[in-house]
Design goal:
61% helix, 4% strand, mainly alpha, single chain, two-stranded antiparallel ribbon, two-stranded antiparallel sheet, globular
Length: 420
């Protein structure tokens, strides 16, 4: 389990509403004092709005899971619904990835190079690691570290390079110069100001607020994450040698994920939780399917989450490195969405039309709505906000069109559907 990109798009759509747009002065790093009460309240009020939307939307997921509704709905949700939904989670974020990477293309490209090198070219190269077994005592085991930690290794190397370029003043110190955000000190003294120990608690940003626009937008993300999670359940079963999960197990899993989203919202993480496809891949690599390993990993995260310095270190990652990782990760998510089409007959003109139209509409309609918000007015502010958030969330538009068309357009044959 972990934070999900499925909530990112509706969150950005919600925060792009006129009432939540950040003031212009916050875009100038030299004018921002992270410790000032004015700035703190500026981001906390938005966190409270996002927090409330996630908590209410998670109740919907809990209901869908424990009521058994997800098992019933899966008979109507096929590849032509899932493919555009997951694809449009990442595809509209190309501008954000390009903006971050464009702060210093050299660092971004280097990050991409190392990720590709470790994850694709060196993934089958074993690394001897000291280990201990009762029968064999101390010995060296061959572990495919590059296959397990490609992003971590790439991030560490480029991060260290940025640190060296910062202390040697190779990177510019002028905040307006190109490449400044590649410096490791571009975010100020966030590490030194972060407390060593901080215990997070529910409502730490204040009392959550709720709006219809936010709730409906996050529900679109919840639906997308549920669809992705169901696919992960089947993938885990295949990799661990278990039979396909029965409907009651799927219902229980979705319900528990909803509880996780509720807790994440209550604690003010700004995101929900869902099954991690990366962990599914790690399961296939390590062949370890024990739930106790997941429990142990969760305990480690709980402990490290109480140390403020650790979070501050990750917050200080230079922007171009994040942009480079986004280019790779968003590309993979897009490809994962498209890969669902292998379970349907793409020689059928019907299926080609549904997928193509859903994708293109999922890009076109949100773009038009973002630039013509004044033309979508009903006279009710709350309804206008709901419509705007939903229609600017590409995965909702594309997923809904795919779902509607796939279940209403007659099909003469579909050879691959039973496999799905």
């Amino acid at each position: 389990q972990g934070g999900t990109f499925a909530f990112l798009t509706p969150s950005l759509a919600m925060l792009s509403l006129p009432s939540w747009k950040c003031p212009a002065w916050t875009n100038n790093a030299s004018m921002v004092d992270p410790t000032s009460p004015k700035f703190i309240e500026l981001w906390q009020v938005r966190m409270r709005e996002l927090q409330g939307a996630i908590m209410v939307a998670s109740c919907f997921q809990i209901f869908v899971g424990f009521s058994g509704l997800i098992g019933f709905l899966m008979r109507f949700i096929g590849p032509l619904t899932i493919a555009p939904t997951i694809t449009l989670v990442a595809l509209p974020l190309f501008s954000s990835a390009g903006k971050d990477a464009g702060e210093h293309w050299g660092i971004a490209v280097l990050t991409i190079f190392f990720i590709v090198l470790f994850s694709q070219y060196l993934k089958n190269v074993p690394v001897p690691v000291p280990s201990y077994q009762k029968s064999r005592k101390c010995h060296f085991s061959k572990v495919y570290l590059f296959q397990i930690f490609p992003v971590l290794f790439a991030l560490t190397i480029t991060w260290l390079l940025c640190f060296v370029l910062t202390i040697t003043n190779v990177l510019p110190s002028d905040t307006r110069a190109y490449g400044y955000l590649a410096r490791t000190d571009s975010r100020g003294d966030v590490i030194s100001k972060a407390p060593w120990f901080r215990f997070p608690y529910p409502g730490q940003w204040g009392v959550p607020t709720i709006s219809l626009a936010g709730v409906f937008g996050i529900i679109a993300g919840v639906i997308s994450s549920m669809v992705e999670s169901v696919g992960d359940y089947y993938a885990c079963a295949r990799l661990s040698g278990a039979p396909p999960p029965p409907k009651h197990a799927i219902n229980r899993g979705i319900g528990v994920e909803g509880i996780g989203c509720l807790l994440a919202g209550a604690w003010g993480t700004g995101n929900g939780t869902t099954s991690y496809s990366e962990n599914v891949g790690a399961l296939g690599i390590t062949r370890v399917g024990s739930r106790m390993v997941i429990v142990a990993g969760g305990l480690v995260l709980l402990v490290t989450g109480m140390f403020g310095k650790i979070g501050a270190v990750f917050a200080s990652i230079p922007t171009p490195i994040i942009g480079g990782m986004f280019l790779v990760m968003f590309g993979i998510i897009t490809a994962v969405g498209v890969s669902n089409l292998q379970y349907t007959d793409m020689n059928s003109s019907r299926n080609i039309f549904i997928f193509g139209f859903s994708i293109f509409a999922g890009l076109t309609i949100p773009h038009w709505v973002e630039n013509n918000t004044d033309k979508l007015t009903t006279g009710t502010v709350q309804l206008d906000q709901v419509i705007q958030v939903l229609l600017t969330t590409g995965m909702f538009v594309g997923g809904f069109l795919g779902f509607f068309l796939d279940n209403t357009i007659p099909v003469s044959y579909d050879l691959a559907l039973p496999t799905w």
